[in-house]
Every structure is written in structure tokens, then in C-alpha cells.
Amino acid sequence: MMRCVEMVAEEDDDEYAKLVRRMNPPRVVIDNDSCDNATVIRVDRVKKHGILLEAVQVLVDLNLVITKAYISSDGNWFMHVFNVTDQDGCKLQNKEAIDHIQKCLESEDCLASPAATWPTYGAAPAEDQSTCIELTGTDRPGLLSEVCAVLASLSCNIVKAEVWTHERRAAAVFQITDEITGLAIRDAGRLSRVQDLLRTVMHGDGRASSTRAGGVPVGAERRLHKLMLEDGAGGEEAVAGEDGRCGRARPKVVVMDCTERQYTVVILRCRDRPKLLFDTLCALSDLHYVVFHGTVDAERGSKEDAYQEYYVRHVDGRPVRSDAERLRLVRCLEAAVERRASDGLELEVRTEDRVGVLSEITRVFRENSLSIIRAAIATRDGTAEDTFYVSDAYGNPVDGRTMDAVGDQLGDVVLRVKKRGGGSGHDAKTVAEGGAVSVLGSLIKGSFQGLRLIRSYS
């Protein structure tokens, strides 16, 4: 199935709501004194659907770690309190970052700000200078390589991309430009051909759509959550079980009734990781639930234990009303947590940007039986900065026992090994896997001079 992306503006609120907001502007306090180990950010503002997710996106776009959060609403007023640190666990000291947070959180449309689009991987092209392509379909080894090859053959340069896979489904958002002009592709016939060929690559069961707008308004990761939910990945059809991929424990989600206050209580416990709060709020928002009260704690004495508790209602004002709705909520929250919790080998590739370079890199992965679980593609100042999470063709993580030997064989290619916590159970793979990575390193070294490779795996 194929469809074109339509940008639909949110309907204006009534005049009374606008008056209330003007009379009660948001109040943001950023406090470095009241907590010993974190910066405390307090946000008070008139209640508006989605405002909690907007605030969290502002923070995660800056790569901040949210260690605790308190959410409460009283009538038409919302109060959010976030304890945040930088990636090193330190309080925020950068005045520019603090001023940016203050400005965004006091804005009425922080999600639409340029800083909120394509976070982490560099600035996006200016508005109307790129074309956005969205894909969903069945995942398989080599799929990204085929997509990149199609785009390269049509002289399309991939400027940015996010690719996720989960439950044998794949979703991707690409920002592309014309090879010659470096701008958005404006020819309708050419766009139609791009869509037709990509639909063929997806083997007929996927979706390829495009728009000329300069990216998607709420960020690629936000859009990917919506695409995977619409595609059915991780919904009611997800396979239930005690263990996830490669023995990783599934998140524990409990949905209970709070009959006295007419809320549904959602409790989630899982291994903590970056952007966990953002992902769970995306799931609740996409399922049309409103969070009225909540507590988030990633400081419960274990780095592998994050606790989230929400009191929610559907946007129609009612709590969960059936076992089927309860099951869907559980499955979708599990999927939202698992999509970003990728096992496998992390490869960061840096090389001079040119049309087709991504196609060549992914072809090397495919020819060496490496499957891409997740990818973030970006270009900055003429340099391609790509991060891939890969496994073998069977979904098993690549082992690191032979990394010292692999590093020697890679020669002048920089290689860094990093263990992500709790790696027991993933360290008894065969030497053959390390050999495959050695061959991969040799091929990349020969094809792309000056390449930088960073590897980490669970």
C-alpha cells in the first residue's frame, strides 16, 4: 500500500482557551541548588494535550538524562518536575543549554522548533530543501542495502535517515536531496518512480510515501513510533513471552483500575536506558491516552531498574474499558520500550559524504551476513556520520571475545570496544563471528579510506 504524507495542522483552540493561556503563561524554573546530583527543572503551564511529551522531547533532544520525574495536573493546570543530568551524570552548567531549555519550554510550539527536528545527529537541511521518504514493511537481511541502492541509482543523496526494526517489521524515515541541485526533488514523475521502485523493494506488503516538506514536523523518532504502531509492529499481534531477543528480559507492564478516581494505573519496570521516558510517552500519546499524574524513577538503586507509574485516561475521558484494550496497551508499551533496546554490534562509520556511499557500506554488511537492527544516518560538513546496530543473519548479537585480534587486523581503522551493562549470556559466541567482523573491517578499510569505526555490543 502507498500513500502520500499530508501535513494536517492542529485545529485552533477556542478563544476562551487562548485567553486562558495568554493570562497564564508557562513558568519554567531551572534549579541547580535544591538537588545534590541533578538539575531540577520545574514546568508549570496550562494543560494542553501532548504538552508532557513536548517537554520531554526538548530535554532528550539535548541528550539529557532524566533520572526522575513527577507529573501532576490540577484542573486546567499541569506541573512537571524533571531531575536531569548530562551524559556524564553531572548537573547542567552550560548557560546556552539552560537558556535554550527555558526558551523552548516556555514556547507554545516547542515541538515545531528547528532544534526538535532530527535530534542528536546534526542540523537538518533548511525548510523545503529536502524530500522526506517514509517506508514500512517486513524486515529481512539486506533490506536497507536494497533501499539505498535504489535511491543511489536514481541519483538521490541520503542526507539523514532513521531506521528501526521490531517483531520482523521495519520502518524508516529518509531525508533525501537531488544529487545535482542538492535540493528537494520537485519533479512529480520522478517522485512517483522513486515510490514505485521502493514499493517493489518492500515486496508489495510495505508502504512507500513521500512529501516535499523539509522533514517531518515532530522529529524522525517520533514519526517512527507512529509508523510502527500503524503498521501493527508490537501491537495486539506481538508474540507474548518472558524473554525478548536473545534472552533479554521483556519489560514488565501492569495495567490496573483505579475505580475510585476513574483512572487507569499503568506501571512499567524495565532496564533503564536513554530516551526510555520519551518512548513510553510516545506510546501512550499514539494510543490517545492522557497522563494526569505520574512518577518516574531511574535511581532506585540499580542501573538496570527503571520505574514508571502513570494515572491515565483515554482522550474521551474514560479509563480502560475492556480486556482487549488493556492487552493492547500492555503490548504497545512493551514494543515502544524494545524498539530502541537493540542488542548487537554498534558500528559508527565516518567518511567523506558522496552519493552512493551508504549503498556501498550497507552492501558490505549484507555480503557478510550482517543484519541491520537499527540505524541513524547523518551528514555534517561534508562528512557522513552513520551509526548501525547489527546482528548476524539469525538475529544473534556479535560476540566480542576476539576484538583485540580484530583491532590488530583493522590496522589504521580506529576501533573502540564498549560493553553495555549486563552482558552475561552474550559472551559465548563462536570465533567465526569475530572472523566475519574481521573480513568486514578489511573490506571497509580497502573501500573507504579514512573511515572511523566504533564498535560496542551487549
TrEMBL record:
Residues 132-209, 346-422 form the ACT domain. The keyword Electron transport does not apply. Keywords: Repeat. The keyword RNA-binding does not apply. PANTHER family: ACT DOMAIN-CONTAINING PROTEIN ACR, ACT DOMAIN-CONTAINING PROTEIN ACR4-RELATED. Binds amino acids. This is ACT domain-containing protein ACR. It comes from Urochloa decumbens. The lineage of its organism: Eukaryota, Viridiplantae, Streptophyta, Embryophyta, Tracheophyta.
